[in-house]
Design brief:
Elements (H helix, E strand, L loop, with lengths): L40 H13 L3 H17 L3 H17 L3 H17 L3 H17 L3 H17 L3 H18 L2 H18 L2 H18 L2 H18 L2 H17 L3 H18 L2 H18 L2 H17 L3 H18 L2 H9 L1
Helix pairs in contact: 1-2, 1-3, 2-3, 3-4, 3-5, 4-5, 5-6, 5-7, 6-7, 7-8, 8-9, 9-10, 10-11, 11-12, 11-13, 12-13, 13-14, 14-15, 15-16
Length: 346
């Protein structure tokens, strides 16, 4: 019996910094003190940076807007570039891609006028990521190519890796998965040479996603498995749980149902250890679907009941209704009509 399950594949964009919930890699626009006045641009920039790193993006945006105004009053154009750049990143993190683009363009124009090649290269990459999220793929590709050339001119290998990866994401979004893989394979080679295991792990996932999109599930699993090893080496349990989800989806798509179950069980164990109820609910849903497909309806009911409990813990009515629907179908298949009626009334 066919059931709904979550199969979202996410990509990791790179710039040269770790920026809160964004998986990015670019020298951070916040570079420490640019002035000493209390309440001035530098102090506001630092406050915005702190909010950003804490994942408080609305508060970060408010502080950073004030910072760029303060820098303008102080006639500090370099400070304005950094404040605008960080503001654009905060808007991007909130999903406001239109304003992120407008703000990044203003920062880019100013960085070019100041002859700041490093900031210019970074801003081009960030702008490309924002364009991609607007589905403006041609513009994304154009500015990512410019970012790549700029980083090459600067002989900045980390920047080159980021630009190649992000260029690959833009091509993938446009539908040219083969070229996306080519770009990201180049990025992977450089990251490996640099011994940057964290960046390598992100790119491995992206290459796996591209092969998944091509329907080449065995190749996707090969790269996902490498990412899994890297996540374990890095002690990144959340990254491990995320890639186990991708592995489950790829294994199921390849017809490897038992393997898909193994990956989901591993993900479930990590989610429970981390207290991540959202990931727990998703893993339970996947396990219910997997046992349903195998005709083991008793096991399916067991996991769907646990999923229902998780959905109620999350106070998510949509997930609760999905779990109840799955339970009714599985109970019917099992011939347990009394239990099915119980879930009709729930």
């Amino acid at each position: 019996m066919k059931q709904t399950d979550e199969r979202q594949i996410s990509d990791d964009s790179l710039s040269k910094v770790s920026l809160g919930s964004l998986t990015t890699l670019s020298v951070h626009p916040y570079q420490g003190e640019l002035g000493s006045e209390e309440g001035g641009g530098s102090e506001l920039l630092a406050v915005g940076h702190q909010h950003y790193e804490a994942g408080e993006f609305a508060a970060a945006a408010a502080a950073l807007m004030a910072a760029q105004v303060a820098y303008e009053t102080e006639a500090n154009d370099l400070g304005r570039v950094r404040a605008l750049y960080q503001l654009s990143l905060a808007l991007y993190a909130q999903g406001d891609y239109e304003q992120a683009v407008v703000t990044a363009q203003a920062a880019l124009e100013l960085a070019v006028s100041l002859a700041e090649p490093q900031l210019t290269a970074q801003l081009l990459g960030h702008l490309g990521n924002a364009y991609r999220h607007q589905d403006n793929y041609d513009a994304a590709i154009t500015v990512q190519q410019q970012s790549l050339q700029s980083f090459r001119n600067l002989q900045d290998s980390a920047g080159v890796v980021a630009a190649l990866n992000n260029l690959g994401l833009a091509y993938r979004a446009k539908g040219d998965l083969r070229y996306a893989i080519e770009m990201q394979q180049q990025a992977l080679r450089i990251a490996k040479q640099a011994g940057d295991r964290y960046t390598e792990s992100q790119i491995l996932k992206n290459i796996g996603n591209a092969y998944y999109g091509l329907g080449e599930y065995d190749k996707a699993m090969k790269y996902y498995e490498q990412r899994l090893v890297a996540s374990r080496e890095l002690g990144d349990q959340r990254g491990e749980a995320q890639i186990l989800r991708n592995l489950c989806n790829a294994a199921r798509a390849a017809g490897e149902r038992e393997l898909a179950i193994t990956y989901s069980q591993q993900r479930l164990a990590i989610a429970r250890e981390l207290g991540d109820h959202r990931a727990e609910e998703q893993a339970l849903a996947s396990l219910g679907v997997a046992y349903d497909a195998l005709g083991d309806y008793q096991a399916a009911v067991n996991y769907y009941e646990q999923r229902l409990s998780a959905a109620r813990t999350l106070a998510d009515p949509r997930l609760e209704q999905q779990a109840l629907s799955s339970l009714r179908v599985a109970c019917y298949a099992l011939g347990d009509y009394a239990r099915m009626a119980q879930y009709e009334e729930a």
